[in-house]
Amino acid sequence: MDRLIDILLPINYDLSNTSYVNFSNSITLLDILINYSKDLYKLPFKITVLFIVDSDDSTIIANIKQFFKNIKETYKFHDIDLKILNLLTFVRLNQNLYNINIDKNCAFVNPTQNKFNSFSDYINSVSSKSTKEDFLFNIYWTLIKVYAYLHEFPVVLFSNSMNNVATKILSNIIKGKGIEISQVLDEEQDLNLADGQTFKFRVLYPLKDVFNNEVVNYIDLLNLTSYLPETLKADYEKINHKDTGINNKIMNVKGATLNQLVNDYFNDLEKNGYSTIVSTVVSTGMRLTLPKTQAGNCPLCKFKTSNSATEWLNNITVNTSCDEADKESEIREAARQTASAASENKKPLNICYGCLVSFGTLDEEFSWPINVGPSSADKAILDEFTISDDEDEDEQ
């Protein structure tokens, strides 16, 4: 028998009020993968479903385990595992935390001794919903890559639909994080390790050509809603009801994040007959590549960057009136001296524009790790915060 292809399917749960969307896409992808492997081409898949949660809430854990149990019982598919990873792992993997402060387009860091007992303690100090969403994505993205490395997964599949991918592309452009697009969507991924080596793996988006409405129709046609956790069924049925539903539209626009508003925009385009715009955004984003000139990786988000955000902003920003333009060099020198004085107890850090904007929105300093990459020694920490389905299997 051919060697099984280890596939990692990550699902973020309880990170936002759209958990039912993540579940819906994931159920669809799992159904396709299992049937593709069993009945059509009999490809030797082994699927590990990795749920990333932000708490140890017993209800959430029970919902996820019940979902997984239902999947296994219905499909009779044995080459599938469940892992539940707590987001607190991100903090525990990076004991060297630093306070990040943005001053005059410059980033400064200093070590902190902050200790967090839960992930909510850590992330809830961020008041801006959009900034928190950005941080959550970076944490989520980092943990997936580290998990893939430590457990030697050659392939990672994401269940994002076309609308989800388009949302990521457009929102990144709006936020000034366009350089991340090609890195997130690139099929060939790599992770810099602590020993200087690079771990390479593949990232695929099998549902990137599927609209949200098609996902909903697929689930309804095959009656896959029965796999949704009870806590999410009501939300799904209310939002996606054929007669009264509003097509995944968020209920509270005032409190929505940028990603949620952009997602609503694409859903409206699809519903009103302009679906080609959504597909055009995705196809354009998939063709983007990194600039040839790169300054290295941002020490905060770890994405590759093409230049120094601070230097670029200082070059394009005019802080003086026209009649004082001849004193521009003097003013810049004064700004550098001010920055030097402000960093007396802090270390300046060259970060990307996206992080400069994100951390600049914070009212207070926020702790964030700066490290050289994961090592094999981190596996013990990762396993400490991972729940598997082994207990359930032992009971059977």
Description of the structure:
This protein is α/β, with parallel strands linked by helices and 396 residues long. It has a single domain, classed as Rossmann fold (3-Layer(aba) Sandwich). 46% of the residues lie in helices and 17% in strands. A 7-stranded mixed beta sheet has the order 7-8-6-1-2-3-13, with helices on both faces. α6 crosses α10, α6 (162-174) crosses α11 (275-287) and α10 (258-271) packs across α11.
CATH class: Alpha Beta
Distance between the termini: 26 Å
Give the overall shape.
globular
What oligomeric state do these chains adopt? single chain
What is the CATH topology classification name? Rossmann fold
Reported for the largest beta sheet, the result is:
7 strands, mixed
Sequence-ordered SSE layout with sheet pairings:
Elements: E1 5-12, H1 19-40, E2 45-53, H2 58-75, E3 80-86, H3 89-92, E4 97-103, E5 106-111, H4 119-123, H5 129-150, E6 155-157, H6 162-174, H7 179-185, E7 188-192, E8 198-204, H8 212-221, H9 230-240, H10 258-271, H11 275-287, E9 296-297, E10 304-305, H12 309-316, H13 328-342, E11 347-349, H14 353-360, E12 366-369, H15 379-384, E13 386-388, H16 390-395
Parallel strand pairs: 1-2, 1-6, 2-3, 6-8
Antiparallel strand pairs: 3-13, 4-5, 4-12, 5-11, 7-8, 9-10
Helix pairs in contact: 1-8, 6-10, 6-11, 10-11
